[in-house]
Amino acid sequence: MIFSVWAPTPALVSLRVDGVDHPMSGSPDGWWRAEASGTDYAFVVDGTALPDPRSSWQPNGVHEASRVYDHSEFAWTDSGWAGRQLAGGIVYELHIGTFTPEGTFDGAAARLDHLVDLGVTHVEVMPVNAFDGVAGWGYDGVLWGAVHEPYGGPDGFKRFVDACHARGLAVLLDVVYNHLGPSGAYLDRFGPYFAGRNDWGPGLNLDGPGSDEVRRYVVDNAVAWLRDFHVDGLRLDAVHALVDRGAVHLLEQLAVEVEALSTGLGRPLTLIAESDLNDASLVTAREGGGTGLHAQWSDDLHHALHVALTGETAGYYPDFVGALAATLRGVFFHAGTWSSFRSRHHGRPVDTRRVPGHRFLAYLQNHDQIGNRATGDRLSATVPHGLLAVGAAIVLTSPYTPMIFMGEEWAASTPWQFFASFPDPGLAEAVRTGRRREFARHGWGEADVPDPIDPETVRRSTLRWDEPVEPGHADVLRMYRELIALRRSHPELADPRVDRFEVREVGTALVLHRGGLRVVCNLGAEPVDVELDGPCGEVLLSSAPVESGGRAMRVPAASFVVVGLGSQPVVG
């Protein structure tokens, strides 16, 4: 077996396999190679044994030797899987460690039938790359190609993907290329992987000397998830932190290579960005001069919905007071407009005639917007179920790709809090202290902020699977199922043409025009009378009894109704 590693910085690299050292031959391009046989291996860099930067398996943690892994030995059963396009889909975001009490891939696979019954099409899995410790969100990964062993390692992840495909569910994987975690990050010992800094630490060297191999490292990792693990798409974390001044940005290079792989595999592969730029060129086709990614998260839609449902106006929320209708029409609220949170103008308008709505993910909640609150409280902790249903109706009847965060569909009572489990006591204390100081600046007492290192924080954040059948929770779940079923059975509700999407404000209500259907959402505390643009027809779904006659409709407080325009008034 040939072992190789790119290490242009060290003076000497040797290979250690099963405790035996072997000399490696270096070449001018910075690659070192040696032939040996065995199972566990490490590269000895200037006297220090380090795991393989391209490792697929770290059975003993991120500081220890890598283990040889043969992808061909896994017995896949998804040969008939043709994939799913994102357009028309519904995404469900989950965290393997807290989705079930088991906190494993196999535990999550046992709950997939719930997602099928719910009606989602894509399962977005938060990062599963290897990180230090047992529990964590996954964004502090340090070996991007190795699957976190406590979840079940590489075979466990493949079993999960295989089980999803058997049920018709596509799998999207969250990957982090903008930084590495603070423990077990050894890339700088091998070569010039880093240049500059971002909010989370050293940023990747994407355009300086030696950057060709750094870019290759990223692209090869992405391709490996899609090819070797049969993943259907990637969610790219915080791409605005990828500093690349080259003529061809890393994201465009990635889009080109993933398109080629998709063609070769004969199934759709999806790239979804998280971006703070409010620039639709990311999701504009390369033929149209864009980067060519397939979709991006839209935090502006979240912020406008959050303010409308909760009334919160702290932090970055003040600009979004009364902004829901405009944001629904235009995707970005900050579209070359003043952002008080940033103290500058931000973003650019989306050309809604050219860019379809399915390229933007809309959501009431996600891991960041819950977990980065001081106590990790969900909307259901403060927003009544009736109003939650109104928010869900707006998301699930919009021209955007809906995304649901695990447990949202039954108004889970469990919070989702920030947690980590760094074994190093000094690092653990630094994370604990930093978290408390951060929220103290916003008026929270230290006792109010959960200890991120306490295993109890993980337990509190784990979903309770007895809740979906309990009173109240079951009603919310039923409404989510019915809304999703309605979206899938009436194509006009998923129509992505934003330029044909009209949103009218009538008092505290929004009226969404969806072809021949009207979705009336009352966000207020009192009933509202709405005059439609045509006679009320069949009520397809409502969260509370409504009265209608002719063109008039009275919608109760904190409720919604989906009605067709027709000739016969009805009482629903």
Widest sheet: strand order? 9-10-13-16-17-18-21-22
Q: Segments where pLDDT lies below 50 for 5+ residues?
A: 568-572
Distance linking N and C termini: 70 Å
Quick one: CATH superfamily of the domain at 501-565? Answer: Golgi alpha-mannosidase II
CATH architecture classification name of the domain at 501-565: Sandwich
Tell me the Rg in angstroms. 25 Å
Strand count, sense and closure of the main sheet? 8 strands, parallel, barrel
Percentage of residues in strands: 15-25%
Query: For this structure, what is the CATH class of the domain at 501-565?
Result: Mainly Beta
CATH topology of the domain at 501-565: Immunoglobulin-like
Number of helices: 14
Number of strands: 30
Class by alpha and beta content: alpha/beta
Helical proportion, percent range: 25-40%
User: Please, what is the average pLDDT?
Assistant: 96
Please write out the topology.
Layout: E1 2-6, E2 13-17, E3 20-23, E4 25-26, E5 31-35, E6 40-45, E7 48-50, E8 66-67, E9 91-94, H1 96-99, H2 105-109, H3 112-118, E10 122-125, E11 129-130, E12 143-147, H4 153-166, E13 170-175, H5 187-190, E14 194-198, E15 201-204, H6 211-228, E16 233-236, H7 250-265, E17 270-273, E18 295-297, H8 299-310, H9 324-330, E19 337-339, E20 344-346, E21 360-363, H10 367-371, H11 385-396, E22 401-405, H12 425-440, H13 455-460, H14 473-489, E23 502-506, E24 509-514, E25 517-522, E26 528-531, E27 536-542, E28 547-549, E29 552-555, E30 559-565
Helix pairs in contact: 6-7, 11-14
GO molecular function, one term: 4-alpha-D-(1->4)-alpha-D-glucanotrehalose trehalohydrolase activity
Subcellular location: Cytoplasm
Pfam families: Alpha-amylase, DUF3459
